[in-house]
Amino acid sequence: MLLITCPWCGPRDEIEFSCGGEAHITRPSEPEALTDEAWADYLFNRTNPKGPHAERWVHTHGCRRWFNVLRNTATNEILAVYEMGKPRPDGEGS
Amino acid sequence: MAARYSIVSLVRNAFGYHEGWQRAWRSPDPKERYHVVVIGGGGHGLATAYYLAKEHGVTDIAVIERGWLGGGNTGRNTTIIRSNYLWDESAGIYEKALQLYEGLSQDLNFNIMLSQRGVLNLAHNLHDLREISRRVNAIRLNGIDSEVLSAEEIKAMVPILNISPGARYPVLGGSLQRRGGVARHDAVAWGLARAADARGVDIVQNCEVTDILREGGRVTGVETTRGTIMADKVGIVVAGHSSVLAAMAGFRMPVESHPLQALVSEPIKPILDTVVMSGTVHVYVSQSDRGELVMGAGIDGHNGYTQRGSLPVIEHMVAAAMELFPIFSRLRMMRQWGGIVDVCPDASPIIGKTPVENLFINCGWGTGGFKATPGSGWVFAHTIARGEPHPLNAPFSLDRFAAGKLIDEHGAAGVAH
Ligand SMILES: Cc1cc2nc3c(=O)[nH]c(=O)nc-3n(C[C@H](O)[C@H](O)[C@H](O)COP(=O)(O)OP(=O)(O)OC[C@H]3O[C@@H](n4cnc5c(N)ncnc54)[C@H](O)[C@@H]3O)c2cc1C
Ligand SMILES: [Zn+2]
Q1: Which homologous superfamily is A3-83 in?
Q2: Which of A24, B34, B108, B200 gives B59 a disulfide partner, CB atoms 3.0 to 4.6 angstroms apart?
Q3: One CATH from 3.30.9.10, 3.90.226.10, 3.30.160.390, 3.40.140.10 for B116-180+257-343
Q4: Separation of alpha carbons B378 and B376, rounded Å
Q5: What own/partner pairs with CB < 8 Å and gap ≥ 24 does A83-91 have?
Q6: B414 lines ligand 1 (CB under 6 A)
Q7: If you ran DSSP here, which 8-state letter would residue B233 be given?
Q8: CATH architecture, range B27-80+86-96+102-107+185-255+346-413
Q9: Looking at the whole model, is its pTM more than 0.80?
Q10: How crowded is residue A4: how many other Cβ atoms within 10 Å of its Cβ?
């Protein structure tokens, strides 16, 4: 079981949260100008790394606020919790 | 060439105190070059190699496995086999697989212990009932056996199921595929490995692919922990590690890896002679030949490569199982484990070409690819040998995502496998 630190409520069990998937995916500002490949890349392709992964979590059964987590998917170690809209704290590609 | 298994060989070896059995397959060092390298020694990779050799006469093949053969999802799954998917494309490939399974023990000369004991899907509300009727009709139109059962008919088949109106999850009916059932997962891997080896395929275990070599947009080989292996063609069949391998070859995938868990109880006397699954309350259960109840849960909500999964997912599943089968409440669970499943946005697999020439990929089987093992190998062997997909896997190309031709099987895949 993961122990996740909500920036507002502090450390809580994983069951209080829901994972919203990969973070830092920006909706294209002009979708109509994209090729089908670029649109599919935005919609479907995911980095899915084995290692540090930036992802969105929401404290569903708590304050219901969203935030980002940097978690190692190979070990489950939580490396950082940070605000949405802020860049990845490890400086890796967004 | 391995000796054939038969009643005669069994008797002969019994007289020799079973000390004379040969190894079922060799353990060769990798050569410097092969015509085809298959990455991943799970059921799908081994089936690919087997059918390449058997159906296409290609025998200069290496199957490269990071760990031990069948140690990935092939050896971790709950072994449910069925072909009752909704769409025509899925019906084609899953039914092909089921038909191959029906002849596989004979074909491989290896008992895969296929037991067509039926797979039941429960309906707990009106929506479930209507959806089940719709699916059964679609499935039958594709010539695949499937039928709707009433709650009483289900109770007659599975007397221990709680169908009382006061049940928390009332059972209103369900669907049944009688040709569905289970098979022994290890036997599928071992039988395919032995048969592929007998046709000259090199199975190289404890050898991890660390890079995919390319030249001018074409694959030329792989870098491994046991040296460089050159190849004319390479097939990636690594389930949960598909994105990792794709990244080595420089392209992105619409796949995410999640832990999926299962658990078994202590062995008990025969009590359940079919497979019962409920997509709505998230549980499915069957009884193994050893008497253990085998239960499966859903995936963890977050990505992961840890092969263990979260406890809340197991708790949720066990709670549902207790409601459906109150009689199980005092059983002890013995083991619990996880595998890393490769989930696609439309819950359908990807089998075909990649942006790199002569590099092919077979993945995205997610929570339900054991049932597809021989069919997947059959079409992937064709794809690698001819450089073009078989009609059965053409709809499952990687470019269906850009084309918008998704094959949505969430309803058939669900938690259920
Ligand atoms: C708990 C659980 C229950 C399931 N229940 C069912 C079920 O009831 N019915 C059903 O149909 N399906 C079920 N599935 C899904 C099914 O197990 C898989 O879809 C199927 O087994 C995939 O087979 P595979 O050969 O593609 O993958 P795997 O058996 O995982 O084989 C892939 C292999 O690739 C190897 N590999 C990875 N990276 C590398 C590398 N870099 N170099 C070399 N080798 C590498 C791995 O070690 C692994 O052995 C279940 C899965 C799980 C986890
Ligand atoms: Zn909170």
Answers
A1: Folate-binding superfamily (3.30.2270.10)
A2: B200
A3: 3.30.9.10
A4: 5
A5: A83/A7, A84/A23, A84/A56, A88/A24, A88/A54, A90/A52
A6: no
A7: E
A8: 3-Layer(bba) Sandwich (3.50)
A9: yes
A10: 21
Q: Do B401 and A71 touch (CB under 8 A)?
A: no
Residue B44 Cβ inside 6 Å of ligand 1? The answer reads yes
Taking an 8 Å cut-off on Cβ atoms, the answer to whether B257 and A73 are in contact is yes
Q: Which residues contact B38 (CB under 8 A, 6 or more apart)?
A: B45, B48, B49, B61, B62, B63, B64, B234, B235, B237
Residue in chain A nearest B314 by alpha carbon: A1
For CATH 3.50.50.60, list the domain ranges present in chain B: 27-80+86-96+102-107+185-255+346-413
Residue B69 Cα, ligand 1 centroid: separation in angstroms? Answer: 11
Tokens linked to B329? 């409440």
The minimum CA-CA distance between B312 and chain A, rounded to whole Å, is 7
Tens of pLDDT along B217-263?
A: 999 999 999 999 999 999 999 999 999 999 999 999 999 999 999 99
pLDDT, one tens digit per residue, over B34-89 is: 999 999 999 999 999 999 999 999 999 999 999 999 999 999 999 999 999 999 99
Prediction ipTM score? 0.96
